[in-house]
Amino acid sequence: MPDNRGLRHLPEAVSPASRSLAELDRYLRLAVFEHQGPVPARMAYLLWSGHGGDERADEELLALLARRSLLRFDPARGTFNLHDLQFGYARWAMGGDGLAAAHRGLAHAVLDGWGGAGLELPATASRSFGSDPADQYAVEHLAGHLAAAGEAELLHRLLAMEGSVFTSAGIKASGNLWFTVHDRLTDMASYQRDVAAALTLAEAATDDALARGEQAPGVATEIRYALMLASVGGIERFHSGELSLRPG
User: Do both 134 and 85 map to the same domain?
Assistant: First the structure.
């Protein structure tokens, strides 16, 4: 448990009139962004209100929290962050189940904003996809939020999606949607972290099945992810010059 003495008046600071616990709940849910660096403000709005929520009210709350020194807001970049102690307090106050639920709500809000996993995320097919910093953040961190929420099946589905999206060269091509989106907007290290997170969840599912004396069909998933990591690692080494096509 963190040392919360300096934050013992946090509930009153968030909602001094004690008119509602909603503002305190929203503040505490910001714990999902711990260790992510400056976060686009719209990610907080998605966390608080979901896709299609009242962003004006969310903007006002973010500004209020900044005025009360409960977070740092950079209006020029449109990003916010919390101090490590504030993140620690929020994480402790949320508890494991509450934090997992917050990660889940954010992940589903992102997917809904992209058109829904059931429709293969049609928003990612737009040439302008990724121009919003919130989308760039989500591409880099969505898998982490899904893993923290325990949404293993949805993460596996995301990594397996096929679609037609614009590549980093500006050409629309069909293939693995999540790999192509990463290649265009982030880097392969980010994609590798997503695959590694999915592999960890698959391994945990296998261990649980074996402990119960059941078959473990997830072993095939583990092998697929291991091969994906090896393949992407080879691509990275080739582009960095560590590998060449010269005959031995």
Answer: no
pTM for this predicted structure: 0.84
C-alpha 111/C-alpha 148 separation (Å) is 16
93 and 184 assigned to the same domain: no
**For residue range 14-30, what is the model confidence (pLDDT) as tens digits?**
544 434 678 889 999 99
Distance from C-alpha of 164 to C-alpha of 118, rounded to nearest angstrom: 15
The candidate with the shortest Cα–Cα distance to 204, out of 152, 146, 148, 135, is 152
The kind and range of the H/E element at 174 are: strand 172-176
User: Poorest-confidence range of 131-140, 145-154, 180-189?
Assistant: 180-189
8 A C-beta contact, residue 143 and residue 155 = yes
Residues, the chain: 248
Residues 231 and 128 in one domain: yes
Q: Domain of 1?
A: 1-113
Contact between residue 44 and residue 58 where contact means Cβ atoms under 8 Å apart:
yes
Read off the CATH number of the domain in which 54 is found: 1.10.10.10
Number of domains in the chain: 2
